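Example is below:
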Amino acid sequence: MAANEIQPGNTRKQTENREIAIPPKTVFDVGAYIAIARPDHWFKNVFMLLGVFLAFFMEPNLVSQSWLGQLLAAVAATCLISSSNYVINEILDAPLDRLHPIKKNRPVPSGRVHLPVAYGEWIIIGILGLGLAWTVNPPFFLSGCALWIAGLCYNIRPVRTKDIPYIDVLSESLNNPIRLYLGWFALIANKIPPVSLTIAYWMAGAFFMGAKRYAEYRMINDPKVAGAYRRSFRHYNENRLLISLFCYATACAFFTAIFIVRYHLELILAAPLFAGFFACYMRVALKPDSPVQNPEKLYQEKTLMVYAVFTFIIFTLLLFTNIPNLYPLFNVAPNRVVPLWVF
């Protein structure tokens, strides 16, 4: 169906060099401007939680301190900065979104948004988010700037990393470790999280983003049509995307293992759950018209969601648990970080 709706030909060159042909409606559609800020995507900031829990793991005395207000401000700032990135993404992707059978109905390509107002929305939301980030602490502000700049690099030419094969996945998934840092710096401003976990989190994000690309490519089901819609798809095919997913998952496993052995061996007990979650996510990605194309709709995959919540709970419990008898078994010296519970 997608192949019948999209006529690639010279459409790419035309859409890349001109504004949207459909004139915006004269009625000011408030809902359209809210939609392009994608508040329904704010759930992605749940990836800040790892940084929050890691902060409590490294500094258990945070429990007795007043931290909730600062954390709420940090989450609000992150949501605003993310929305600023979503707005510019909606604006700059609109010409090519008109080539997509579903995304052509988004507010900008369908003509429901005035572009000058949308550009103003992008700037204002970004300023508000960064301003609120500054009230948290300087390291958090710098991480917020990194999140915003990453959005610019991903969307705006001449960089526009989303057009470069593999770099598109790695650059967008970079938001994962940035969110890890945002969660961490919301509570701890004078240290940085472990590098091994930072890279593992990045590779996990790359796996999820690569799975999204794979599902999207399969849904379009026409290399020419896919290449007209997304430039990086001119290089990709199903085999290359699957191989990249294997690479990201393996890298995530290696760097996670380094973190576990170096900082908290108890987390090794969750390794089978991590592996199972990656397999479960891949199973969903292989479905026809897979929901991984739109992560905000993954809540409909009840089995995956239950598995994810269960794995996260076990991970959190193990993070704050000490099992001394485990260390001689693996011949690993215990870390000096004091957990909240000891078994």
The first strand starts at residue 321 and ends at 322. Strands lie at 321-322, 341-342. The CA atoms of residues 265 and 327 lie 7 Å apart. Residues 1-24 have pLDDT under 50 and may be disordered.
